[in-house]
Amino acid sequence: MGAIGNVLEYLIPSCVDDAIALCHQAGKEGRFIAGGTEIVPRMNRREIVPTCLIELSRLDHLRALDVNGGSLRIGAMITHAEIEASAVTKGQWKAVTDASGSIRSPQVTNCGTTGGNVCFGVPSADLMPPFLALQADLRLKGPEGERHLSLGDFLIAPYRNALKPGEMLIEVRLPDNGKNFGSAFRKAAKYHGLGLASTSIAAALSVQDGRIRNVRIAIGSATPVPKRVATAERFLEGKVVDDTILREAGQLVSAAAEPREDSVRASPYYKRRVLGPLTEYVISRAITRACAQ
């Protein structure tokens, strides 16, 4: 599966530092592999042709899934199935559970990892809108040591990110937002939900004295990279929500979309049209969850 005529070297390190060193030594031809649900199909299509794969399955340091110092930690090797089943991803971070639970393919659910979902920069990646809305902090490690980036700074362009050579994602941290805070995620997808997202959205907010505060809304598969919708956030801040407010918020989110004209999954018209009701749903759902906290 490497370059034609070349041997594909397959390495399985036992610690993070060794994995980083091996990838750094391999240079541009080295790639990390976790669940393989993204990299293997791309290799089959010869979109990428590495000569060295470094498997991360033995790196227990990448398997954190807990609440530490009030923040939720999700290690890069945690699968969608583990997120969906975990008790710690419920409550204020429920949008993350929604996103992993929306993946209906058993192979992707059981093998696909948080690290792969984040690092490949796929515009339709399901975890991106919840992570943006929940203000994810990414802990990275490479030959030069550790650093932290917000997800917004990490995503550069479709399929491009801010990782340096030999650097890997260690974990995603979601901060504690306190009481009366809720979140929700929803996507539109073909094939009874089995396909990739045609478009997706997440909302995170708190409810104080009947008004919504700290509103954050993020969309995926409707812009070159997943992004926050600041116009809708400003509009909703401090509002007592009713049907009219929800419709107006949906219109602002639809207007912020920048869908590709040549998208194979849905037309720009469809994406903008469906974002309206999806927005209404996730805001209402997040409010209900916030009031239940």
What does this structure look like?
- The protein is of the alpha+beta class.
- The chain has 3 domains: 9-55, 2-Layer Sandwich (Uridine Diphospho-n-acetylenolpyruvylglucosamine Reductase, domain 2); 61-174, 2-Layer Sandwich (Uridine Diphospho-n-acetylenolpyruvylglucosamine Reductase, domain 3); 181-292, Enolase-like, domain 1 (2-Layer Sandwich).
- It is 34% helix and 26% strand.
- The protein is built from 11 helices and 14 strands.
- The chain has helices at residues 16-26, 39-44, 80-85, 94-101, 106-111, 114-119, 128-133, 151-154, 230-236, 243-256, 268-292; strands spanning 9-11, 30-33, 52-55, 65-68, 71-75, 137-142, 145-150, 155-157, 160-161, 168-174, 181-189, 197-208, 211-220, 227-228.
- The strands form 4 sheets. Strands 4-5-10-6-7 form a 5-stranded antiparallel beta sheet. Strands 11-12-13-14 form a 4-stranded antiparallel beta sheet. Strands 1-3-2 form a 3-stranded parallel beta sheet, covered by helices on one side.
- A hairpin with a 7-residue loop joins strand 11 and strand 12 (197-208).
- The protein is globular and about 60 Å long.
- Residues 1-5 have low confidence and may be disordered.
